[in-house]
Amino acid sequence: MVVETKKTFEDQSVKDNRKPPKASVKCTYAGQEEQPIEDEQITQFLPMVHKIVQRVVTYLKPPLSYEDLVAAGTVGLVKAAHDYDPSHEAGFKTYAYIRIRGAILDELRNWSFVSANVDKKIHQAMQFSLEITKQKGSLPTDEELAKKLHISVDKLYQTFESARAKRFVSIDNSHEGLLPLGPSLAAVKTPTPDQQLEQAELVDKLTEAIQQLNERQRQIIILYYQQQLTMKQIAEVFNITESRVSQLHATALFNLSVKLRQWKDGR
């Protein structure tokens, strides 16, 4: 979860034969002729859909499939082509990326159910983390938090991953009292002065929170969000398993949410 800034998303193409046929794309908005959909433009950015899906495939849970996410992302691309206003500051590539990613995350979120017991454990983990951070002035270690929750460290990692799957920790939508980071950091419209101030403050606090993560978590956040590496690629960089990268990623997101919640509550 780190800031995905307004940088141009270049070199998004990826080789993948599983591209939806052009006809199915056109059918999505059949009958809506207010703004002509450029088939060539949609076709050009279809590889971006697969690139984004490959970055979030770790979050997949049955019955959701890779193809389901590609379909959702393709609809997001078609909507982007239909709704795009060239008068906005953002170029179409940036706008399309935001809409595609949003559609894919929405699809994931719709299928990310957790039991009442797990949901309770997530809330407890957040509350204990806030309390420990306030007392110590720093985030609790995994061992400290697991002990406080009376669970094993492995179980704690499962809780973090459930929190991520539920989108409890989100950079794209306001949830659980957190500010919506995605729209504020990649806005397609000129923000108001108040929004600009809030955005600048949020970026500062997020940067500060990232610096307070342990080194490995911080590296994973940078590689995943700034360098756009997949979890599989990050696993190769550190010579660890992909599942371990997923654990560290989920833990880092949870810790960042704790710091941002602490900042928001103290405002």
What would you note in describing this structure?
- By secondary structure, the protein is an all-alpha fold.
- The chain has two domains: 22-110, RNA polymerase sigma factor, region 2, helix turn helix motif (Rna Polymerase Sigma Factor, Chain: A); 116-265, Arc Repressor Mutant, subunit A, CATH 1.10.10.
- Helices cover 64% and strands 0% of the residues.
- Helix 7 (153-165) packs across helix 12 (242-265).
- The longest helix is centred in the last third of the chain and has 24 residues, at 242-265.
Care to give the gist of this entry?
This protein is mainly α.
The top-level CATH class of the largest domain is Mainly Alpha
Judged by helices, strands and strand pairing, the structural class is mainly alpha
The CATH topology of the largest domain is given as Arc Repressor Mutant, subunit A
Task: Give the rounded overall mean pLDDT.
Answer: 75
CATH architecture group name of the largest domain: Orthogonal Bundle
Strands, count: 0
Layout: helices, strands, pairs:
Blueprint: H1 22-28, H2 39-56, H3 66-83, H4 92-110, H5 116-136, H6 142-149, H7 153-165, H8 181-185, H9 193-211, H10 215-226, H11 231-238, H12 242-265
Helix pairs in contact: 2-3, 2-4, 3-4, 5-7, 5-12, 6-7, 7-12, 9-12, 10-12, 11-12
